[in-house]
Amino acid sequence: MTTMLARPRRSRVEMSAETRTKLLSLARAMFGSVGYADVALEDLTTVGGMTRGALYHHFENKLGLFKAVVAEIEAELDREVKAKTRHLGERPEDAWEGLRLASHCYLSTVLKADVQQIMLRDAPTFYPGFANRPTKLRCHELTIRTLSGLKSAGKLDILDPEATANMIAGAIQRLASWAVALPEPDITQIQKMLDQYLASFGVR
Fold this sequence. Notes:
By secondary structure, the protein is an all-alpha fold. The chain has helices at residues 12-34, 41-48, 52-58, 62-85, 92-110, 113-126, 134-152, 161-180, 187-199. Helices cover 72% and strands 0% of the residues.
């Protein structure tokens, strides 16, 4: 005789987490395909088969949902950077290599079609304070510390670490903006272009 085991009931917390994950997945797909301006919350609830109440339980409004999608993308990028740089040591030149690898990860992420729309086109326009969000500021401070360490160790000849950090960030952003306009951007070639630029600093 076969004994049928009852499937354990999911807790309210588990169901809530599942709903939030589903909303984020749907929102990311829709924001990434048609853009922030053309996504209505009604579209999300209809496609997802859920109520507006469920959406507002997790996210205050459309902008709150968009910010959560941006945070999810940045969390994925952070995990990728950590995986790529975990082998590095504590020397100033290791920090420089970490900066190079992190920049590669950033470019490969933002050149994905859905992320292009979200991070490069819509976020600067619709996300208030996007340019000064904590994640970006932490990244900028880390770049300054890396450059300061190299300068102090006599491995990099620069006048001002903060100015140089802004130059590097600007170059990476402009390179990404140029690349997304290409019919078929070759991420390997684009990363090589970045490497050529970074090599011009002559880190020893």
